[in-house]
Amino acid sequence: MIEVTDHPVLSSLKGTADIQALTAEQKTQLADELRALIIETVAKNGGHLAPNLGVV
Length: 56
Hints:
The protein is mainly α. It contains four helices and no strands.
Protein backbone atom coordinates (compact mmCIF):
# COMPACT_ATOMS: atom_id res chain seq x y z
CA MET A 1 0.00 0.00 0.00
CA ILE A 2 1.21 3.50 -0.81
CA GLU A 3 1.61 5.64 2.29
CA VAL A 4 1.14 9.39 2.05
CA THR A 5 3.56 9.69 4.97
CA ASP A 6 6.28 8.62 2.52
CA HIS A 7 5.73 12.07 0.99
CA PRO A 8 6.42 14.63 3.76
CA VAL A 9 5.36 17.82 1.97
CA LEU A 10 2.19 16.25 0.58
CA SER A 11 1.22 14.77 3.95
CA SER A 12 1.65 18.16 5.63
CA LEU A 13 -0.98 19.87 3.45
CA LYS A 14 -4.44 20.47 4.88
CA GLY A 15 -5.78 23.00 2.38
CA THR A 16 -5.00 25.37 -0.45
CA ALA A 17 -3.57 28.00 1.90
CA ASP A 18 -0.87 25.51 2.86
CA ILE A 19 0.15 25.18 -0.80
CA GLN A 20 0.32 28.94 -1.21
CA ALA A 21 2.53 29.21 1.88
CA LEU A 22 5.16 26.78 0.52
CA THR A 23 8.54 28.09 -0.58
CA ALA A 24 9.64 27.56 -4.18
CA GLU A 25 11.88 24.70 -3.03
CA GLN A 26 8.98 23.05 -1.18
CA LYS A 27 6.74 23.42 -4.24
CA THR A 28 9.39 21.66 -6.32
CA GLN A 29 9.54 18.89 -3.73
CA LEU A 30 5.73 18.68 -3.73
CA ALA A 31 5.72 18.26 -7.51
CA ASP A 32 8.34 15.50 -7.17
CA GLU A 33 6.25 13.76 -4.51
CA LEU A 34 3.09 14.01 -6.62
CA ARG A 35 4.89 12.56 -9.64
CA ALA A 36 6.22 9.68 -7.54
CA LEU A 37 2.78 9.00 -6.07
CA ILE A 38 1.16 8.99 -9.53
CA ILE A 39 3.83 6.64 -10.89
CA GLU A 40 3.45 4.30 -7.90
CA THR A 41 -0.35 4.29 -8.21
CA VAL A 42 -0.38 3.67 -11.97
CA ALA A 43 2.24 0.93 -11.62
CA LYS A 44 0.05 -0.80 -9.05
CA ASN A 45 -3.38 -0.26 -10.64
CA GLY A 46 -2.62 0.24 -14.33
CA GLY A 47 -3.87 3.06 -16.50
CA HIS A 48 -2.49 5.91 -18.54
CA LEU A 49 0.44 7.71 -16.98
CA ALA A 50 1.22 10.62 -19.32
CA PRO A 51 -1.95 12.74 -18.91
CA ASN A 52 -1.57 12.78 -15.13
CA LEU A 53 2.09 13.77 -15.24
CA GLY A 54 1.27 16.56 -17.68
CA VAL A 55 -0.87 18.17 -15.01
CA VAL A 56 1.93 18.09 -12.44
